Every structure is written in structure tokens, then in C-alpha cells.
Amino acid sequence: MSDKSSSLATAQGLLILIVPPSLEEMLVDYLLLRKDISGFTSHKVHGHGRVHGELNLSIIEQVSGRQARVQFMTHAAVDDLQVLVTELKLKFRSQDIHYILLPILAC
Prior knowledge:
Elements lengths: L2 H7 L2 E8 L4 H9 L8 E7 L11 H6 L2 E11 H14 L6 E6 L4
Antiparallel strand pairs: 1-3, 1-4, 2-3
């Protein structure tokens, strides 16, 4: 099997991380040092709703109905992304990081 067909057989995933703006620079630095991902995107988003059933919004955020967040997305092998999520949970244990790991059917 060639390297190209071998890499095509590796299950690919999309990891989406949604974090408070205060973690943006730390997470950018952390992701840039990773050897298992080739790159990522980030952009500012707004979160709406409750965190674990409790309001986690400042007064201004309650009035506007939105909370500032930064969203990161990266595409890599699912196994590598699962390791990354495990490491993020340990490194940023007490932080408000929401993650979504999705399989990629085609890319």
C-alpha cells in the first residue's frame, strides 16, 4: 500500500473547540506547537444559552443574550484528535472549554 492510499484509509475527524476569549492566545500557542495537526482556523463567535443549567453570563451578556467566545477548528486523524482532547482536558481542567469531535466522511 502506498503512503497516499495508507493516509486515505486513516479515519479523519474535525475537532471544534469553543473557548472564552481569555484562552485564545494560550490555545493558539498550544495548537501551533502540536506535531499531529497541520493547522487550524479560529474566529470570534457568540455563545447563547446556559452552562450546565446555570446562568454563566455577566449582566451585560444577560442583557445582550450572548457571550463572547472563540472557535477553533482543526482537521486530522481521529486518533490524534482524541489524544488532543484528552490532553486539553488535563491541561485546561478548570477552564470553560467546549469541544465537538466529528467524523469526516470525505475531504
